[in-house]
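$ ./design --mode recover --in tokens.txt
reading tokens...
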């Protein structure tokens, strides 16, 4: 009998990071699809305004609070309106990118999960942009709302007739809100700090900004939240491990040694 023992190898405490080049291409592709997809949905002006009137009336039937109640808070001074416009224009992409980079470096398993969820929500949103063009409330006279970006600046949009860099009729769903909510949920799930729930202030502030600046209706955020909920139900988050238990670097995980395995005993 030629028997020998081979020690069982312990599994790594944290999952390996995906190849960085592949991930850079995937994330860059996600942002590119977002921009190009919105361009494909451009136009359809008449349909976009008809849908806008329908959404406005549905909100009133549902007795949702008027978007003007939020905007009135911003119109007390130029500084607050400018701050909201700046937040809308500058936080959306950088915050999401920083979120993905942090997860990639510190929580690889959560990174893959978050990237898949964001991709699914973005793809579903682009389909809705194509089939349901929607003029934002700042364009709809019936709302009585002010285009704060045009009046106070800064603005990321030009006149709809000459703006060929963005689709201004892609209001529903609001990816500003959907992505912000995913950033908060992802950080709450991936960390253990007692302060982690404060990340929910990010989507809350984003919601107030997109409504107060008249770029989105309440229902745009509701639909974005619903799409995110479906994606989260279908794409499950990884289980918590000891690597997420601490506030700092991942803690090492001790793996109990297994008994030696007899090799060749049955020959």
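writing sequence...
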């Amino acid at each position: 009998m030629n028997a020998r023992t081979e020690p069982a190898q312990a599994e790594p405490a944290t999952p390996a990071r995906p190849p960085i080049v592949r991930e850079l291409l995937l994330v860059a592709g996600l942002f590119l699809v977002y921009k190009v997809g919105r361009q494909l949905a451009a136009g359809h002006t008449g349909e976009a305004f008809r849908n806008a009137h329908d959404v406005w009336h549905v909100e009133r039937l549902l007795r949702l609070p008027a978007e003007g109640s939020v905007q009135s808070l911003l119109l007390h001074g130029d500084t607050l309106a400018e701050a909201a416009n700046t937040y809308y224009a500058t936080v959306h992409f950088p915050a999401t990118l920083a979120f993905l980079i942090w997860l990639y470096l510190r929580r690889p398993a959560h990174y893959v999960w978050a990237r898949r969820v964001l991709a699914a929500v973005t793809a579903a949103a682009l389909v809705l942009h194509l089939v349901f063009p929607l003029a934002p409330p700042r364009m709809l006279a019936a709302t009585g709302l002010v285009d704060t970006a045009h009046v106070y600046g800064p603005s990321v949009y030009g006149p709809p007739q000459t703006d060929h860099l963005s689709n201004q009729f892609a209001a529903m769903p609001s990816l500003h809100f959907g992505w912000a909510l995913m950033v908060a949920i992802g950080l709450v799930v991936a960390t253990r700090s007692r302060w982690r729930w404060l990340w929910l202030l990010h989507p809350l502030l984003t919601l107030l900004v997109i409504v107060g600046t008249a770029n989105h209706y309440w229902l745009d955020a509701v639909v974005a939240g619903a799409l995110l909920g479906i994606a989260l139900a279908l794409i499950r988050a990884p289980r918590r491990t000891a690597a997420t238990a601490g506030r700092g670097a991942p803690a090492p995980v001790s793996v109990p040694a297994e008994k030696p395995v007899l090799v060749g005993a049955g020959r």
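exit 0
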